Amino acid sequence: MPYLGGPAGDVAIDTLSLRDLAPGPGWHRPLLLDRDLLALVTGGHGTVELDFRPLRCRPGTLLRVRAGQVLRCPVPPLDATVVRWAPAALHGLDVDLDAVAPWRQLAGEDADAVISEVTQLAVDCQRHRDVPAAQGLLRHQLAVLLLRLTLLPGGAPPAAPRAEAATFDRFRREVERGYPHTRRVEDYAARLGCSVRTLTRACLAVTGRSAKQVVDERVALQASRLLAASDEPIARIGRSLGFTEPTNFGRFFTREVGASPGAFRAAREQPLPGSGRPPAAQPSPGSGQPADGPTAPGGRPTAPPGPPQPPNGRVVRPRPPADVDGASRQA
């Protein structure tokens, strides 16, 4: 199924505003993204939804969004500078994207450094847009920005035992390849050369959920994304995820999410309301919880709230450059 958000073209890295990403007037539906991006909020207060999880935003909030996730913004939208890149942009560079938190409220010297790098990257993207030799500069600027974000303190979840974490990482990658074709944990165990018990132990250590729950939640998340951000018929979405019968897909989705596919889609056809007031601050900073991978979609009644809001810090708004033109099949 096609992704929204504009064609990637030949440009490995580009910058734009959050408003430029809108799938139509008023952000009437979530947007299914075709490239990774960072969004630095420079104005406004409100709540965005990333894979159906609410994230409170104000100036200095930084969002890390992965290709394939769905994003929905309030109306009127926040002001934000967006840095977007294709997978080839980081080829050969030692950057661990998994170490970049999906939500972070910048403050103090950290805010100054990140804002300066985002601003300079935006300037150079515009100034050298048609200069092939500048791609190396932009790639390394992006890598430095991402590396800086991985080094920011706080927000890292407790590490699981090394053996379980390694097993879970292999399992997660295999699930990403295989979830449209099979939901049987036995199939993944066979591919990885281990037992179902080993996979379940690793998943419990890292996520607190069984291997079967991890697989089913990944399927439900993708179904939620496609229902919310596309006009594909429900039956076709079910078939793309391994369900030969629409009724089986409907039962599965309702069990996992807590709403039927049709009700879930209808509930996300209304834009998010805007907010003109700053959200209340919380006692301490944090980086939020990962919004991608094997997590329950936000339609589930037990979905966790957005990350805590840190105290206000000094934020310098980026200035626009003055010299630049403008998965086996199952029931």
UniProtKB/TrEMBL annotation:
Note whether Transcription regulation occurs among the keywords.
yes
**Which segments carry the region annotation Disordered?**
266-331
* Bias (Low complexity) ranges: 290-301
Which parts of the sequence belong to the HTH araC/xylS-type domain? 169-267
Q: Spans of biased composition, class Pro residues?
A: 302-311
Return the InterPro entries for the record.
Answer: Homeodomain-like_sf, HTH-like, HTH_AraC
Chain segments annotated as transmembrane: none
Q: Name one Pfam family in it.
A: HTH_18
Q: Does the keyword Protein biosynthesis apply?
A: no
Protein's recorded name: AraC family transcriptional regulator
